[in-house]
Structures are given as structure tokens and as C-alpha cells.
# Entry
Amino acid sequence: MTQIFHKQQFFHKHKKSALETIADTFLKVSVIGALLYSFGLYYGFQIYEFIDSLSHIGFGKTLIKGSAVASLALYALFKAHSPKHILLVAALALSATGDIYLTFSYPNAFIYGLLAFMFGHIFLILLYVLMRSPRVDIAPFDISAATFFWIITAVSLVYAYPLLPTEMIVPVIAYSLVLTTMTSMALISRYPSLTVGLGAVLFLISDAVLGARQFMNAPEFTDYIIWTTYYLGQLLMTIGVITFKDVPKLRGGYRFD
# Structure
């Protein structure tokens, strides 16, 4: 009788709610969307043309690329269990908007995408500031990494400055500063470095390569690096934030909330 009770208790613990099931479905859709977009990069976008032929509405590339992070935003929304998580949802929604803008070729599409991503980073900065670690808990490696990325950002901006179109100088500098701030705050936040910190670093790498592709004529194969590091960065940050359990640390036998 005791064994039966324990078995029932075990299965009850692992039974998913409807919201969790919906969230997991959106996570799977996100990964599928990311893989489809990757296949499109590799196979020359024929997959987008195939989807266009089925849907009769066009924009196959836009739909697939946008679905990856938009579905990640919906996953975060259905898994949210803290008011802070709404900041993550907003950041992901803005990133998905930026992804969509970057698939268009009309004038100012790139700058609109840049602005969408920048505001998304601002929401992440707010999240990481709210979850910042006490100074004594920040690992020296994380401080060194944040300092390193600020140095790299400064050097990159000095190098890229003469190559930027006049109208892009201010937006690119502003975006770079916001992006590096986001990465630094992620590294020194209470979130795990192996998920959120690494995800922020991958995002920074993705955007650095994107900048080289956009303004420095980097080779086409860098598109694979841009998308892979970008999506993995978003995925790691999302999973890291959503699954993090914020348990106050004990110091000297006392609990500090």
C-alpha cells in the first residue's frame, strides 16, 4: 500500500499543467523554426520558396525567422512565474520584431531592426539590474570578462568608425554601448553564467559578426555564425532566466531576503 502511494505521488509530481504543455509546445516550435531557418541558409532559401508556394502569401523567410524567437517569447510568457519575467518576454518580442525587420530590404528596415533590438536589450538590462549579484558574490572571472568585452567594443568602434555611413554612426555607437551593457549586467547578475551569461556573450558575438557582415563586407559564410550564435544566445538566456530559482543565500546562519 505504501509503494502504491509513493508511485501515485511520483506521477502526480511530474504531471504537467496545461500551461506547461503549451509552453513546451512553443519551445519546440521555436527550435523547429530556428532549424528551418538554418536549413534555408545552407540550401539557398529554397525552403522559403516552398513554404511560399503552400501559403500563397509570400514572406516565407520572414515567417520562419520570426517564428523562432517569437515562439521563444510565448514560451517565456506561459512559463513566467515572476513579474520580472515580463521583462524577458518584452525583450524577446522586440527581438522577434527586429528579426522580421532584418528580412526586409526596403530603406530604413535595418535601422528599425536595430532599434527593436536595442529596446529589447534595455528590457534585459532592467531585468539583470533587478537581479544583480551583491558585490562580494561576483566572481573575478565575470568581472574580467565584462571588462574584456568593453575593451573589445571600444577597439571595434574605433576601427569601424571610418567604415560606417554617416547616418549610421550614432545608431551603431548607441547600440554597441547598450549591447555591451546588457552583456556585462548578465555576467554579474545572479543568473547562472553558463546559461544567461554565456547566452549574452553569444548574442554579442552574433551582433559583432553581423556588423562586420553589414559594414565591412565579411564573407557570406559568416551568416551561419550570426544565426547560430544569435539563436543559441536567446535560447540560453531564456532557459536560464525561466528555470532560475532565486533562493536567498545564507550568511552567518541568517537568511537575507
